[in-house]
Design a protein that fits this description.
305 residues, alpha+beta, 2 domains, 4-stranded antiparallel sheet, rod-shaped
C-alpha cells in the first residue's frame, strides 16, 4: 500500500461520529470535480476515498450512490459518482448551504473540533503525499484557484508552510517542509502516519550523518596515505643518493619508522620515537627531509643540464 493510501485509510478510521462525518463529506463535496445545481461529480483514483464518499453520503444525505469504475490506459481505475437527480442535489445544497455561483469554504457550518476532519475530506478528494523514504512532498489539486487560496490560508493557520503553483493549468497547493507535512497529517487525523514519517526522517538523518563521517574518515585516510607516499619517496631518494646514515639521528629515526609503517599517522610516529614528540614536531622533521630530497632533485637536475 502506498503512503498516500496509508494516510487515507487512517483518516477514514478517525471519522467516527456525526459531526465528523458531516465535516468530512463537506470537504469531499466542496473540492469535488463538479459541484452544481444540475450535476455533482466526485472522482478519485483511490478505492479507499471512493468507498468513503459513498459511506458518508449514505450517512449524511441518506441516499445510496452507484459507483462507475473506468479502467484507464495505465491500468489504474477511476472511480466516479455522477449525481444528476434534482432531489438529491437539492438535499446536498440545502444541507451544506452551497453557493450556486461560487465555491467558498464556510467554516461556520463546521463544528470547531471538526475543521481537521473537513481538511481530511479535502485530502481524500484531491490530496496526495509522497513516500517519505523518497521525498518530502504533500499536495492538493483544488478545482478552483479561489479554493486553492482558501486552503493555503487554512493550512497556514495551523503553521504549515503551504505554497501554490500552476501546473498544466491546474493550481496546486503543496508542502515540501517535513515539519509542515507532519503538522498537516496530524491535523487531518493521520497521527500514526506522522510517526512513521518522523521515524523515516530520524533514520535518514542518522544515515546521512554516518555517511558524512565515513566520507570524512575516508578522505582523512586518503590524505594520510598520500602524504606517507610522498614522504617515502623522499626518504628512498635520500637513501639512494646519500644513504640514511648521512642524516642526523632524529631524522634517520623518523625516516626508518615511516619506511616500516606507511599507514602510521604523524601522531603515532611521534609516540613511537625513542624520545616521543608531538605531531607538529614529527611534521617539522618530515619537512626537513622533504627539503633535503628537493635539494637532491635540484642538484640532479643541474648536473643533467
Amino acid at each position: 500500500m502506498s503512503f498516500s493510501n496509508e494516510v487515507r485509510k487512517e483518516i477514514c478510521s478517525s471519522v467516527n461520529d456525526k459531526d465528523k462525518r458531516f465535516a468530512c463529506l463537506y470537504g469531499m463535496l466542496l473540492f469535488s470535480r463538479i459541484l452544481g445545481r444540475e450535476r455533482i461529480c466526485f472522482q478519485s483514483e483511490s478505492r479507499i476515498a471512493a468507498e468513503m464518499f459513498r459511506s458518508l453520503f449514505r450517512s449524511v444525505i441518506k441516499k445510496e450512490l452507484q459507483c462507475v469504475e473506468n479502467v484507464r490506459r495505465n491500468s489504474s481505475i477511476l472511480y466516479t459518482y455522477d449525481i444528476t437527480d434534482p432531489e438529491t442535489i437539492g438535499l446536498v445544497f440545502g444541507k451544506y448551504r452551497f453557493n450556486e455561483n461560487e465555491r467558498v469554504m464556510d467554516t461556520e457550518i463546521i463544528a470547531t473540533n471538526s475543521l481537521g476532519v473537513f481538511t481530511a475530506g479535502v485530502f481524500l478528494t484531491c490530496g496526495s503525499v509522497n513516500d517519505p523514504e523518497k521525498e518530502y512532498h504533500l499536495e492538493f489539486t483544488p478545482p478552483t484557484a479561489q479554493l486553492a487560496d482558501m486552503l493555503s490560508m487554512l493550512l497556514g493557520d495551523i503553521g504549515a508552510n503551504a505554497k501554490t503553483v500552476t501546473r498544466r493549468g491546474q493550481v496546486v497547493v503543496y508542502i515540501k517542509d517535513s515539519v509542515s507535512i507532519e503538522d498537516t497529517l496530524t491535523f487531518i487525523g493521520a497521527q500514526q502516519c506522522t510517526l512513521e514519517l518522523m521515524n523515516v526522517k530520524i533514520y535518514k538523518d542518522v544515515r546521512n550523518k554516518a555517511n558524512r563521517i565515513a566520507n570524512c574518515d575516508s578522505a582523512n585516510i586518503d590524505k594520510v596515505v598520500n602524504a606517507a607516499v610522498r614522504q617515502i619517496e623522499d626518504i628512498k631518494l635520500i637513501d639512494h643518493i646519500s644513504g640514511l646514515d648521512s642524516l642526523p639521528d632524529e631524522l634517520r629515526e623518523v625516516a626508518l619508522l615511516r619506511l616500516e609503517n606507511i599507514d602510521m599517522s604523524l601522531q603515532e610516529i611521534g609516540e613511537n620515537l625513542s624520545v616521543p614528540i608531538s605531531r607538529s614536531g614529527v611534521n617539522h622533521r618530515f619537512k626537513r627531509l622533504a627539503k633535503i630530497a628537493d635539494d637532491i632533485r635540484r642538484g640532479m637536475y643541474n648536473n643533467e643540464k
